[in-house]
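Most newcomers find our protein records easier to grasp once they have seen one. There is nothing in a record beyond a sequence line and a structure line. Getting from the letters to the tokens is the skill we practise here. An example says more than a description, so a record of this kind follows:
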Amino acid sequence: MGPAQVAAIIAADPRLIIPVGTCEQHGPHLPLGCATIIAQRLADDLSAATGVIVAPPVEYGVNADAECAFPGNASLRKKTLHRLLNDLLDSWETTGFREFILLTAHDHDAHQEALDTVITRSARVRVVDIYAVDLKDILEGQAEHLHGGEADTSLMLYIAPELVRMEWARDFIPPADSRRYRRGKLRVPKDSAGSVGRPTLATAAKGKALYERLRERIGDRIFLVPAPDA
């Protein structure tokens, strides 16, 4: 898009969707850009349904700690991601945007905090963690999203099946307090292949159900809110 096209859209609806992903392993069976791919696909579909435009994705985030190194991982520090987003939103706000919707498929605490603390001069900022949507009735092997587990793998089987290697999927059942892994209180352990949960239970049919739930709930709760008055 050229500047004149963007200006015309801002005049009609001054909102901007910004997908924020990661470059991070999600187990041997998923690509490093898994979180970015999911966030980008949702952003594109929500944009098509609402007319709110999408910025190029931020393809790096704050990765969860792990007890061993994974080739290809590239993480930002929390303050780096925070400053990056501050700078981007400041630039876009200057051009007329009045609301920013930061859409992420990565629920690591430090990553979320970098998004939640972004500052603008007057524009509204809304942070959407897609995995805050209740999905437990669709999942079989776990009650919530876990890193590279049943939910991530099912969504990727639906969105981009050519990028998933199910023959490499390995289950890792965490201790009873699995939320400590989900929220980044513990490191991904050495005895895990990198994923946590039961990715072997993932299917494209579950991925379709998960994706439709996410698109519907996020669309209803975020995009039905009136756009800010320019």
In short: The chain has one domain: 3-221.
